[in-house]
Amino acid sequence: MNERRQLAKWLIVLGVLHGVIACAGFFAPYDPLEQDREHPYAPPMKLHLTDMQGHFHLRPFFYPFRVREGSVDQYDEDIARATPLIFFADRSAYRLLGLVPCRLHLFATSGERVFLVGTDGFGRDQLSRTLYGGQVSLLAGLLGAGITLFFGLGIGAAAGYYGGWRDEVLMRLSELFLALPWLYLLLGLRAFLPLAVSPLEAFLLIVIVIGMVGWARPARLIRGVVLSVKERDFVRAARGFGAPDGYLLLRHILPETSSVLLTQATILVPQYVLAEMTLSFLGLGVPQPLASWGNLLANLQQYSVLVSYWWMYLPAVAMVPFFLTYFGLSSALQEWATPHK
Amino acid sequence: MRNIKASSKHPWLSVSVLLVMACVAAPSLIAVPQSPVPQEDLLALSGEIGHPGGRLVISLRAEPKTLNPVLSVDAPSREVIAAMQADLVHINRATQLTEAALAESVKVSSDGLQYTVTLRRGLRFSDGQPLDADDVVFTFRVYLDENVHSPQRDLLIVGGKPITVRKLDARTLVFEFAKPYGVGERVFDGLAILPRHLLEKQYQEGKFEQIGTLSTPAIQWAGLGPFRLKEYVPGQRLVLERNPYYWKTDTKGSRLPYLDELVFLFVPSADAQVLRFQSGDTDVISGLGAENFSVLSRQKASYTLADAGPGLEYNFLFFNLNDLSGRATPDLARKQKWFREVRFRQAVSAAVDREAIVRLVYQGRGAALWGPVTPGNRRWVDAKVAHQPHSIDHARQLLREAGFKWASGPRGDSALLDADGSPVEFSILTSSSNADRMKMATLIQDDLKDLGMRVQVVPLEFRSLLDRITQTKEYDACVLGLGSFDADPNSDMNVWLSSGGTHLWNPSQAHPATPWESEIDHLMEEQLTVTSYEQRKKLYDRVQEILAEFQPMIFLASPDILVAARNSVGNFHPAVLEPYVLWNVEQLYVRNGGQNSGE
């Protein structure tokens, strides 16, 4: 029972984290593409509860930034103009979960803009960009893992179940895929595409490429499970009663692979999120001005950004809880699936 | 960034100079006995008196492709060559005026067709061989040889005829022009006088392009510049040593240069150059980006930072105006209909927020541009070119007049439609290695969104970008920059002439495609032969006004020249003309107590 509780705990944490990213429009105060050209590289603003006179305010407020004289990216707080946060305010339109038109934001301001974790070189809100960027990166990871498992399951089951020359061909093919230098493959693939690909095309391309190259490892695992399951007594019995191949596979063999599949999924998702980040970091992912964790981090390729603006690391920090939860979930799954005796 | 800018400028600007050497006797390679030089005519430079000795380490973005001044086109080659070679007349990078160099005097005949050049007495190449008029004659023969393909050759064709050179005696030459030449004696700047005794044999065998590779042994290479070749370590560094025969002195009479060695390290990226500079590996850094400049200024330690003001680099957006009759895809043909519409280009220009570019891309260390001549080029900038303010309303009005209309787009935003009802969408190419121009393109993308244009920014590797613009011509629009070597309008000849290879929006045309391009052609050719500055200025002003009206290029901004040097470097006076720091390399010195950097 303890394993079950562990599992539920990790699933809830994971659900909350994904929920925040999925509802990025609600949690993000601004449109991720909106530039505030007066505030490039503004550092995170401080929220206050007590003002200069020491009075306590229930509603958190902040002091807007003024550019320091003679500088472009150095700011001072303008203490004359305390601006309160407004919770659950109607502001810019977005689509909740990409579907429902909505205007409600968790917090907003009137007049002066608040940048809780600073801005990038165009004055775009880093918090909003990180939240929206997470949508791209996580969705790429989830879809990529789905594609991989789909192919891995199909190919692994076919190889394990039919054996013989089919097994030989499929397994040699999987070795070929394991040996593929996928980064260069993608660079090569990009050269064949038209010059300007739309963000959606670019996104689908990386999802497909990430998903297609990774099937070999799960396929080999599944093949192993299928090989052992198909010799079990209940399968032999069903076959003896004349059950066709398709029925045997679907009804008796594949269900036995579920724990392997789930564990694989929890390992693959973070791995593929990282793959998306790598590709976007190198400029092969979704194009600017759209955000993804990878292309947000790409700003750090510039030495000046790396040493001057620490809040540009935020996407790297944001991915840590996701990865930890996925790994926690995967070990909880393993505990749960392995019968203790 | 240096690299990009350099490779994007037209090759013939690359004025670098060669030196010729007179080899009096039979070309035997036996060490020439120190022939008694009766008298030397040295040039004394004013300026701070330095200490002899020491070395200066500088980083280069790439290895120079060649040491041969006749063939060099890339910035690293030119920077290295400038330290090893000298010209008859030189443009002082600080004053932007000409001064006598190898030539002691240049006399121009009253009709402006004949230049009589007298060489300094007692000049020697860096290998000790004396220079005489035969070297100069040989040099010009090489530059003018069609088979050599020197990028400077076009500069020496005046009125359709090549310049002729005649030797009068060992120190005197006569240059004859078919027509008066607008730039006057500036023509000699950047033409390095070559050592005939070293090069003539290979030149006559037709192997000139093999001369001056980096692997040339130091003993087989010579010039008249302050330094001479010492050592080349592939992939790491190029070391030059002091030329003991150099023809300049300081006011106290000690022979220049002060430095014993000049070391060029090959450091491929701008950021790596900053790191090497901070760690003390290099003494000087030039062509700093604004963001790196502020990083250095925040951590100011033992170095001096200098903002020399706007340089000559101009960045711009241009559209594909090539005549692709038949070859264009239907998609591009449709877009070219917009691009050819003057009001479309004017509207884009009005919508671009240039002040934001200067502030966000250059951190305020730059100047907004409405024409190709930057404020740094005070002699030639046309004050009459209007500084049109950033105005979306004006842009919308222009588009409306040109038949464009707006519809509400798929996401509730307004989308611009052309007269046929198709949405205005195009892509802008930029070089992926140039962060500044990527940022400009992103700002333009956002500005044009306000007009309802859907723009995509496509970063491309620089070579494939150039290939698309000059060869395949498959692109919509592009953000690029050009930089001239000299402030004179002639240096941009190849950009404005419709037949020019760097006439980027429609290069190498057989006939000018539009009346205004044809007018520019005439104006540019006329200013070549007019000799008074006022008249040339008037003609070039008109060129700038036509460009501002028809907007074949939408000029954006020009960055300041930002450099830094260790405090131990003396006589550090950066200029806005290339080479920014090394222009007075013969006077640079290492102060006492200053540390020489290690490798």
> How many alpha or pi helices of chain A?
13
- Could you give the distance between the termini of chain B? 24 Å
**Tally of strands of chain A:** 7
Average pLDDT of chain A, rounded to a whole number, is 87
Helix and strand layout, with pairings?
The complex is a heterodimer of chains A (341) and B (599).
Chain A: H1 2-22, H2 24-27, E1 48-50, E2 56-62, E3 65-67, E4 75-77, E5 83-84, E6 86-96, E7 100-108, H3 126-162, H4 164-179, H5 182-192, H6 199-213, H7 216-229, H8 233-240, H9 245-253, H10 258-281, H11 293-297, H12 303-308, H13 314-337
Antiparallel strand pairs in A: 1-2, 2-5, 3-4, 6-7
Helix pairs in contact in A: 1-3, 1-13, 3-4, 3-6, 3-7, 3-10, 3-13, 4-7, 6-10, 8-9, 10-13
Chain B: H1 2-7, E1 16-21, E2 43-45, E3 55-60, H2 75-84, E4 89-91, E5 98-100, E6 103-108, E7 114-119, H3 133-144, E8 157-158, E9 161-162, E10 164-169, E11 172-176, E12 191-195, H4 196-204, E13 227-233, E14 237-242, E15 248-250, E16 261-266, H5 270-278, E17 284-285, H6 290-298, E18 303-310, E19 314-319, H7 330-340, H8 342-351, H9 354-361, E20 366-368, H10 392-401, E21 405-408, E22 414-417, E23 425-431, H11 435-449, E24 454-460, H12 462-472, E25 477-482, H13 493-496, H14 515-529, H15 533-550, E26 553-566, E27 569-570, E28 589-590
Parallel strand pairs in B: 1-12, 2-15, 3-16, 23-24, 23-25
Antiparallel strand pairs in B: 4-5, 6-7, 7-11, 8-9, 10-11, 13-14, 14-16, 17-26, 18-26, 19-25, 19-26, 20-26, 21-22, 27-28
Structure overview:
The complex is a heterodimer of chains A (341) and B (599). Chain A is mostly helical. Helices cover 57% and strands 11% of the residues of chain A. Chain A is built from 13 helices and seven strands. In chain A, the strands form three sheets. A three-stranded antiparallel beta sheet of chain A has the order 1-2-5, with no helix packed on it. In chain A, strand 3 and strand 4 (75-77) form a beta hairpin. Chain A is elongated and about 85 Å long. Helix content of chain B is 26%, strand content 23%. Chain B contains 15 helices and 28 strands. The model of chain B is unreliable at 1-37 and 594-599 (pLDDT under 50).
